[in-house]
Amino acid sequence: MKCPICASNSFGGYRGRVNVRCCGCGSFERSRLLWLVLEALKVSDITLPFFHFAPEIGIAKKLAEKLESQYRPFDFDPDIYIRGGINAERFDLCTDIQMVTKGSVGILCHVHVLEHVRCNAAFVLQELNELLAPGGYHIFSVPFFSKRFRENLSEVSATDRFEQFGHEDHMRSFCTEDFELMFSPAFKGLEQLSLRDLIDSSKLLEANIPTGYCQK
Fold it and tell me: How far apart, in whole angstroms, are the C-alpha atoms of residue 187 and residue 139?
């Protein structure tokens, strides 16, 4: 096994799962998959801004080095990135998208972020897509936790949120049964790329990523 982000050959366990966390950069499967996608799309060649929300530390460092000022890491609480050496900017997906010029962004990227957003997630996706320049990419993933989409934007305890959505800070849970029904309208006019066409299964195995991560 070899981490595609930092090239480490050492993997450790996490919460009962074996060999899932890279001992070099701390990445999990979803981060290593993201990096393989970014490499396949040749993001280092972009000439427009790369907006990265809640960036993964190891990936953020590599992108900042490659893209320099074109790379824009954002987070609702950017101070948490100071220790990791990432100069993230504060960004609230519920209120700040409107301040960005439409059609000005080359790449939008966020992994396991939408479940935390405290407003209408479909509307956020639609607004984000309006920022993309022609030929740009919107790369994201969400966790699936329930059979059907569920959401609760009201004030409830962290314990209740954990019971409802599997995490004390999640506003909703997504599901494969109705994800496209709920959110595909936000991507009208955009082309969907298949991960299976982008990434060879041998690369997934080397990075210790289950092939099920690339079902679509």
Answer: 12
Max CA pair span of the chain: 45
170: burial class by Cβ within 10 Å (0-12, 13-18, 19+)? buried
Does residue 128 sit in helix, strand or coil? helix
Helix, strand, coil tally for the chain in percent (to 5): 35, 20, 45
pTM: 0.91
**Contacts with 14 (C-beta within 8 Å, 6 or more apart), sequence order:** 20, 21, 28
- The dihedral through the CA atoms of 117, 121, 124, 128 has a sign that is positive
- For the stretch 147-189, pLDDT in tens is 788 888 888 887 877 877 777 778 888 888 888 888 999 999 9
Tokens for 14? 């996490």
CATH architecture of 29-196+209-214: 3-Layer(aba) Sandwich (3.40)
Task: List the chain domain ranges.
Answer: 29-196+209-214
Classify the phi-psi angles of 87: left when phi > 0, otherwise alpha if psi is within -120 to 50, otherwise beta.
Answer: beta
Q: Strand locations in 55-95, DSSP E?
A: 71-75, 89-90
Count Cβ atoms below 10 Å from residue 98 Cβ, excluding itself: 8
